[in-house]
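Q: Please design a sequence for this.
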């Protein structure tokens, strides 16, 4: 490349970086925070994101139709306009104005991404074009991970976002965006058809956005991955991964790259959930994301194999399905989860493998699919290691040795009020089959047969450490000594064994429950009850900042500002809230308050509803 060529290359890299940067920092990040700060409910928030996606898809289609952004000046205007709308986000206070901003920014970014992705072949030719795109996407990710940008206030991030697209408008190269003379045929086997590309990249985006959302909203995971001091490292890894991807793609490595991106992403998803693998997972994740993101931008014009004329359509379809719909679905699927289900990772793996193997000859394809199936079986088997059973056995021994049996039973009496409080009764043989039998003969404390379905592992740990923190004046002594050598973990494994099996039962019971006391009336003092039972997690004012926040797998809900997943607006709000207070969130971190009378439960429900700012 001569110096003019390399100047164009840098301009294209900058353009890609700036468009990426705007999307990451504004559309995926600060805009959501701003809407939240303005007190929009979850429903409105979802509507705004949907509007942006609709705008994005429409923008992409308009670019593919050559109506928008496919000529140099047009693209500049689209980018400049997007910047103006982005600034408008800071001023749009009402839902209508915010909706217009969402739609407009989506439209601008949708058109700009499609125009850019299909323009690269014309600007750069095919030689080393992927390297340029990779450098650009890496820079985009890196800049957004710079601490000053990543942690800036949302209003400041809006300014960054607008700055990015204005910079992009300046950088659009003057040269023609469509130069069919640069079209070199790709060697067979190195390109990927549209069905395969969409399938593979949608699966990757889906997995990525689900994992990212879970990590960002799970205190423990976030601290070990996106916490302070790790942002520079993430920025560097993003850049390195993307440059590597560009280099590799120029050498025809598309299929290998998609496969590797999946392996790294799957490994990262698994590792971040292991206490001793979190750092390794946090390092693999940015690399994986950069790999496939570079492929996403390179594919429509450089790696699809078809003619350039249709590259706009290919980009529009790919970005609509993999980009806009894939990320929304990934997030929508997991807002209720605090783990990344391994079955989900495996499904994504099968999709990627199918896509990558498409077009390969029969035997090769069978070999790849068989490999994935074996891997799936292996991971599934490794997921419940034999060590689990051993831990449960050791835990039972701890239970016996520590004398829990003197105060706790493990026997839910059938057809009694026990069922609401403690869970389903034992199956025949379930309790008698235990050696030694631990039914117990005294009941000072609650029955522990199903305690694992009512209390999370982190809650149980906190309870063993200092029982009084959840029950002032409790006779239960502290078992903090068990936390020092892993015996607490074994004990918790024992208490939680089989818990998952009774979750559905409990959920059903919860949904059928109605308080005996009259709704709307209670003699109890909600304020006092809240301080006593809830403030330790939700904070004295219910803002989710109690002393235990950060020690649970999920942040306690902010009961003033929301968002409200379980107790959102709608019919029977008081009843639904009362159910959450009494039963907790089965399988989640919110404990039930089974021992409180219905009167107290109702008083608490009414009190927390009264805390809401809207
Ligand atoms: C001296 C009696 C005593 C001993 C010994 C004792 N507990 Fe408790 N435990 C209680 C009482 C009373 C409560 C109810 C009040 C409270 O929550 O602290 C309780 C509550 C609990 C809870 C909360 C259950 C729920 O549904 O909220 C758990 C879990 C628990 N104990 C586990 C254990 C384990 C495990 C051991 C043995 C390592 C143990 N306890 C030993 C008396 C005891
Ligand atoms: C051990 C900590 C802890 C305690 C104690 C606790 N909560 Fe929670 N609570 C949580 C967590 C964590 C969540 C979020 C759960 C989730 O998203 O999975 C939550 C969620 C909730 C929600 C659901 C909000 C929604 O999403 O709609 C309500 C309501 C709630 N808590 C009320 C209470 C009340 C009332 C009390 C006291 C009686 C209480 N909590 C005690 C941790 C706690």
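A: Design:
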């Amino acid at each position: 490349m001569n110096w003019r060529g390399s100047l164009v290359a840098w301009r294209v890299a900058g353009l890609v970086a700036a468009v990426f940067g705007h999307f990451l920092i504004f559309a995926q990040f600060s805009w959501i925070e701003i809407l939240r700060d303005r007190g929009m409910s979850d429903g409105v928030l979802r509507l705004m994101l949907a509007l942006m996606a609709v705008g994005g898809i429409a923008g992409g289609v308009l670019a593919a139709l050559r109506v928008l952004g496919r000529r140099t000046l047009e693209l500049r205007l689209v980018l400049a306009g997007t910047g103006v709308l982005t600034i408008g986000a800071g001023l749009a206070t009402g839902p209508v104005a915010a909706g217009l901003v969402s739609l407009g920014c989506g439209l601008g970014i949708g058109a700009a991404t499609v125009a850019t992705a299909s323009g690269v072949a014309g600007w750069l030719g095919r030689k080393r074009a992927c390297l340029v795109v990779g450098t650009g996407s890496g820079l985009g990710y890196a800049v957004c991970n710079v601490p000053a940008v990543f942690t800036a206030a949302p209003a400041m991030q809006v300014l960054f976002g607008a700055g990015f697209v204005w910079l992009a408008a300046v950088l659009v190269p003057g040269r023609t965006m469509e130069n069919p003379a640069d079209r070199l045929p790709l060697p067979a086997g190195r390109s990927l058809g549209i069905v395969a590309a969409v399938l593979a990249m949608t699966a990757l985006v889906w997995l990525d956005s689900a994992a990212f959302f879970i990590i960002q909203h799970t205190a423990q995971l976030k601290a070990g991955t996106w916490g302070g001091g790790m942002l520079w490292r993430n920025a560097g890894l993003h850049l390195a991964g993307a440059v590597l991807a560009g280099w590799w793609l120029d050498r025809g490595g598309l299929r290998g790259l998609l496969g590797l991106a999946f392996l790294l992403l799957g490994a990262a998803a698994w590792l971040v959930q292991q206490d001793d693998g979190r750092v390794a997972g946090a390092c693999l994740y940015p690399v994986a994301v950069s790999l496939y993101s570079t492929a996403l931008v390179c594919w429509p014009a450089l790696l699809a194999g078809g003619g350039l004329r249709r590259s706009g359509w290919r980009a529009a379809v790919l970005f609509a399905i993999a980009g806009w719909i894939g990320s929304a679905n990934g997030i929508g699927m997991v807002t209720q989860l605090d783990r990344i289900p391994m079955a989900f990772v495996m499904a994504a793996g099968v999709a990627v493998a199918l896509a990558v193997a498409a077009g390969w000859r029969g035997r090769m394809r069978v070999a790849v699919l068989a490999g994935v199936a074996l891997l799936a079986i292996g991971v599934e088997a490794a997921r419940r290691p034999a060590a689990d059973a051993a831990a449960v056995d050791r835990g039972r021994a701890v239970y016996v040795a520590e004398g829990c049996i003197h105060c706790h039973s493990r026997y839910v009496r059938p057809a009694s009020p026990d069922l609401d409080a403690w869970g389903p009764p034992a199956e025949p043989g379930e309790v008698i089959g235990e050696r030694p039998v631990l039914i117990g003969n005294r009941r000072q404390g609650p029955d522990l047969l199903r305690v694992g379905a009512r209390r999370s592992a982190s809650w149980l740990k906190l309870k063993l450490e200092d029982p009084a923190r959840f029950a002032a004046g409790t006779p239960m002594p502290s078992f903090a000594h068990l936390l020092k050598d892993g015996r607490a973990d074994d004990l918790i494994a024992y208490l939680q064994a089989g818990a998952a099996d009774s979750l559905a039962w409990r959920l059903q019971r919860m949904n059928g429950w109605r308080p005996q006391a009259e709704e709307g009336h209670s003699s109890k003092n909600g304020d006092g009850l809240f301080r006593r039972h809830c403030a330790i997690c939700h904070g004295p004012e219910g803002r989710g900042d109690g002393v235990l926040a950060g020690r649970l797998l999920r942040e306690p809900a902010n009961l003033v500002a929301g968002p409200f997943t379980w107790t959102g607006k709608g019919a029977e709000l008081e009843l639904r809230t009362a159910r959450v207070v009494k039963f907790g969130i089965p399988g989640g971190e919110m404990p039930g308050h089974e021992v409180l009378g219905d009167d107290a439960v109702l008083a608490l429900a009414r009190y927390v509803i009264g805390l809401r700012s809207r």
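Q: Thanks. Anything notable?
A: The two ends are 60 Å apart (CA to CA). The pocket of heme C (ligand 2) is lined by residues 459, 533-534, 536-538, 548, 552, 554, 556-557, 564-567, 577, 580-581, 585, 588-591, 593, 604, 608 (CB under 6 Å).
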